[in-house]
Write a structure and sequence with these properties.
Radius of gyration: 16 Å
Number of strands: 6
Number of helices: 9
CATH topology: Beta-Lactamase
Order of helices and strands: EEHEEEHHHHHEHHH
CATH class: Alpha Beta
Strand content: 15-25%
CATH architecture: 2-Layer Sandwich
Mean pLDDT: 80
Strand order of the largest sheet: 2-1-5-4-3-6
Distance between the termini: 17 Å
Shape: globular
Helix content: 40-55%
Oligomer: single chain
Low-confidence stretches: 196-201
Largest sheet: 6 strands, mixed
Number of domains: 1
Structural class: alpha+beta
Length: about 200
């Protein structure tokens, strides 16, 4: 069981022409080869943004892509937490972690700060969480108080293809992305062809 990536994302607001912004993120890509880590991290951020933009306010969802899951919880128009894990990671722990990430972030940062954010900034709590939540059994014991709440929430399970708009293809989205380097785009295409064990979300 592995948690690869945690991100707090401010989704775009078409009314104000505000763009999507990753406010803070942390990754654990130690299970990948040294040469793949940069590309894997770019894809983790790319898919964090993609899923956050397609998560409605108040919604919790699990989006599957190539044996990995992106768990999303959007608490408000301005804030969405993303937890990307492998298939074996317990969904209840991942979604509980997403809620905890938002709780911790909003204790420190108000709506005005989130609205005005222009770039990604370190948030020490995410670094702590990415280490602590590698063991979901230990993490789950910390979160038992949230169990009843988590189990009563509706969680939508989707695949990445079903999350995309009708006619929108993941390959085209990757090709158009300014967020991914040409090396990462090539990594995605190669990994998809060989169907390797790497994350190609």
């Amino acid at each position: 069981m592995k948690a690869y990536h945690l991100a707090l994302v401010r989704p775009a607001d078409p009314a104000t022409q505000r763009t999507t912004q990753i406010l803070s993120s942390e990754s654990d890509v130690s299970s990948f080869s040294f040469f793949q880590r940069g590309s894997v991290e770019e894809f983790l951020e790319f898919f964090s943004v993609t899923v956050a933009e397609r998560t409605q306010v108040g919604q919790r969802q699990a989006v599957e892509e190539n044996d990995n899951f992106a768990y999303a919880y959007r608490s408000s128009p301005n804030l969405c937490a993303i937890v990307i894990t492998d298939r074996e990671y317990p969904s209840r722990v991942a979604l509980g972690l997403a809620a905890k990430m938002i709780d911790e972030y909003t204790k420190v940062h108000d709506d005005r700060f989130i609205d005005a954010a222009q770039g990604k900034a370190a948030f020490a709590v995410l670094k702590e969480f990415i280490g602590k939540y590698q063991d979901p059994k230990q993490a789950d014991s910390i979160m038992k108080l949230q169990q009843e709440l988590d189990e009563t929430k509706v969680v939508l399970h989707k695949t990445m293809e079903s999350l995309l708009e009708r006619g929108e293809k993941l390959d085209a989205l990757v090709d158009r992305s300014n967020q991914l380097s040409s090396q990462s785009k090539m990594f995605y295409k190669t990994a998809k062809k060989t169907n390797s064990c790497c994350i190609v979300m």
